[in-house]
């Protein structure tokens, strides 16, 4: 798994709209991996990132959610929950593997990476805590890193 100081990986995936996305990670960026659309903890986490999205954007921080679900599932999930940030579809696990995550079970663990420019600057493992509050914690700490 990537850790603090590791180089940002080059990734490319389709978002919930079927558009190709290749983040450059030039500005502070949060990439959070979650196991599956429409599951309890994943829905809480996505909704909290959405609720905090205006503050992320005001702070110049981009948010991407990534799971091994396909674009159709992401589109349905985003529509049902009003998610305005990009959900990257990673059905073959190449994005997860670029971050060093295990995909052997057909899903990824709940892990979050903060990138700034060319490198990973922070990682979070919210499996140690309730997904509720995770988006706020990441926002506060990412803002502090940017100062």
Automatic annotation (TrEMBL):
Keyword annotations for this protein, in alphabetical order, are: Antioxidant, Disulfide bond, Oxidoreductase, Peroxidase, Redox-active center
What is this enzyme's EC? 1.11.1.24
Q: Name one GO cellular component term.
A: cytoplasm
Q: Which reaction does it catalyse?
A: a hydroperoxide + [thioredoxin]-dithiol = an alcohol + [thioredoxin]-disulfide + H2O
* Record-annotated Thioredoxin domain positions: 2-116
| Matches recorded under InterPro entries | AhpC/TSA (IPR000866), Peroxiredoxin_AhpC-typ (IPR024706), Peroxiredoxin_BCP/PrxQ (IPR050924), Thioredoxin-like_sf (IPR036249), Thioredoxin_domain (IPR013766)
Q: Output compositional bias ranges, type Basic and acidic residues.
A: 9-20
Transferase recorded as keyword: no
Active site positions: 42
Write down the superkingdom of origin.
Archaea
EC main group: oxidoreductase
Q: Biological process GO annotation list?
A: cell redox homeostasis; cellular response to oxidative stress
Q: Which GO terms label this protein's molecular function in UniProt?
A: thioredoxin peroxidase activity
Region: Disordered, residue numbers: 1-20
**How is this protein organized at the quaternary level?**
Monomer.
Q: Which family does it belong to?
A: Belongs to the peroxiredoxin family. BCP/PrxQ subfamily.
UniProt name for this protein? thioredoxin-dependent peroxiredoxin
Provenance organism: Halosegnis rubeus
